[in-house]
Amino acid sequence: MPLTPEQQAEIDALRAQSRPTLRAVAEGMEAHLYTAYPVLDHGFVRVIDYMGDDAAITQAARVSYGRGTKAVSNDEGLIRYLMRHWHSTPFEMCELKLHVKLPVFVARQWIRHRTANVNEYSARYSILDREFYIPRPEDLAAQSTVNNQGRGEALSGEEAARVLEYLKGDAARTYDHYEEMIGQEGQQGLARELARMNLPANIYTQWYWKVDLHNLFHFLRLRADAHAQYEIRVYAEEICRLVKDWVPYAYGAFEDYRLGGATLSGKALDCLRRMLKGEEVTQETSGMSKGEWREFQGVVD
User: Fold this and answer.
1) Is the pLDDT reported for residue 67 higher than 70?
2) Is the pLDDT of residue 287 over 60?
3) What is the DSSP string of 200-269?
4) Whose CB among 3, 68, 217, 270 lies 3.0–4.6 Å from 7's, allowing a Cys bridge?
5) Predicted local confidence at residue 177, as pLDDT
6) Which candidate, 33, 81, 74, places its Cα nearest to that of 55?
7) Is 84 annotated as ligand-binding?
8) 286 φ/ψ sector (left φ>0, alpha ψ -120 to 50, else beta)
9) Per the annotation, does 109 bind a ligand?
10) Mind telling me the catalytic residues?
11) Is 8 annotated as a binding-site member?
12) Do residues 290 and 249 both lie within one domain?
């Protein structure tokens, strides 16, 4: 189950409270507070707290740049200007704190974004739940033949069934041994901090993750991308939905310039200009490597 009864009771109690406040409030995010949105088979994302809104970004920008932004007549235009010209510090005025439940192997990818504050569930002090990520058959795929980090074609029905049986069986067996090691009647039991090392990377963990909007956008640009691993991408996509309701102007600019935009190298720009003039440009005449050329074609085709 995504939420324990204790967690659900805590959420229900918090949602039942209502207090007046003088701080900036984003109505879109208020609607999401304390709601756990399911991700994968046992995971979830829920908003614990947030600070700031679109107005906080423009307020900080106008303090910082003064007269330099007077030509921008509205907040949305200013935010788009800031995003377009990579002015990042105004976006740092907004912060978001999430409670995330996710498989350990996804957490190990996620933690590479070292610009957030993290507090993770401790398996030294507590016993992990018997919850493992088991992919859907359609999400099982072979290794990509063109990308060492990616997936290729989906596995066939028989092979997918065999792999799923391994995943389920291995997870159950290692957890049985974990339970047996940490204590039975008549034995001392292995320390939890040691017993946990035998658990597989698809077991679920939880953490609180707090990040400012600038670094959150960097995370989302990489992890909500179509090339990101599916299991972390679905978390990023759920967070995108929340952020869109929180700071709609900032998210709109991010979606346009980062998620939907492309960065071209000097060689790529030169090739594009030549192509616009009617010249036929090939990989051999582009000055790019095969990989660069393939990526360039993905942008312009």
Assistant:
1) no
2) yes
3) -TTBEEEEEEEEEHHHHHHHHHHHSSTTS-HHHHHHHHHHHHHHHHHSHHHHHHHIIIIIS-----HHHH
4) 3
5) 94
6) 74
7) no
8) alpha
9) yes
10) 223
11) no
12) no
